[in-house]
Amino acid sequence: METKNTTSLGLRLASMVLPEEQRQMAWSAFERLGLPTTRHEEYKYTPITRELEKIKSWSSSTQTNLESSVVAGLGIPQITGQRVVLVNGKLDAVLSNIKPDSGYSVRSLATANPESLGTIHNFTKDAFGALNTATWTDGVYLHVSQGVAVSEPITILHLQDAREGNTMAHTRLFVHVEAGGEATVIHQTHTLGTHHAFHTVVDEVVIGNGGRFNYYKLQNDAGKSLEVWNSTIRQADDSHVDTFTLTAGGEVVRNNFQIEINGERCESHFHGLYLLHGRTLADNHTVVDHQKPNSFSNELYKGILDDRSKGVFNGKIFVRPHAQKTNAYQSNRNMLLSDAASVNTKPQLEIWADDVKCSHGCTTGQLDEEALFYLRSRGLANETAKAMLLYAFAAETMDTIKNPVMKHYISDLVGQRLQKNF
Q1: pTM of the full predicted structure?
Q2: Which domain holds residue 239?
Q3: Are residues 257 and 135 both part of a single domain?
Q4: With 50 as the cut, is the pLDDT of residue 318 above it?
């Protein structure tokens, strides 16, 4: 797209939190790439730029008068670990619950300077990643020391206050789990008000030898949100990663998710579920990059789509020449509940090694009428029988959730959403 579109949002460089040279490089990349249109292959089915250009004015103000009671109602019950609240992209120390702890630290990324900050995510490939790298003002830094297991999840609440006007925010997360460490991070997004909220996020995660990392992303936004996430996780030897992404709300949601398996004997589980209704569009672009031998990855994304919603899945698995003895599996399955709903799916394998076990596949179908008839013949109401079948279809994606509180919360959320909207 023409460079002129990069200024149509009224963007300007923020105060230099990253080294100035890196911000300038990112801004140059953003101007070169331009905001993507549907003529760009990677955004062929996701017209987010068209939606952004409909909105005439944006505010990047971090001023807010939110009360703690409002935020308290947005959290996950029974999750009592540290919580970071970012309001319009800025960490709010009053609304957050951050306490010093031995063995690990959580703090504002604006005051930290991790050595690899800005180098894990390749901002030259995606315009929104470049935009974020050039303009972000705050975020979260999590450091876990060697051999330390953080017992409770760390929740990051991204809160967009769009009550007074359209708001825009660019935030980041940097995580370093040293050798033998373990941590769990939960992302949640919410928009207050009836105006639009445009939000970009860049996650950079480094897992040391034998480290474990659990990553949950809950996108259940009732507001008019436009979100673009670029998440990169880099694994070293013997590390283990579990991820789960739930998209159940928002106007346009784009998730770019990459796992770099840069070690041997790694294990990676990469699961997602999108429950879409109305005119919601959710686009999941994933990359699993096997760079070393003797590792295992398993990717499963499922979608349930109703009304005029749209889903996109583009999953790539790379197996590099030296990554022998790799086992990699990828599956995308979708269920369409209306004639107006649609999904575009494209699983891909690129293999340069010969001693591997890899497979991929995708399916798109409708609710099994015979199974529905069977349940109804046993006395169940149509809505209840339908919800039961849909929940059974979705449940497999939640199998790898290790935290029992999280699993119960997400299971309830999915069940309620299926009863209410489908």
Answers
A1: 0.92
A2: 3-263
A3: yes
A4: yes
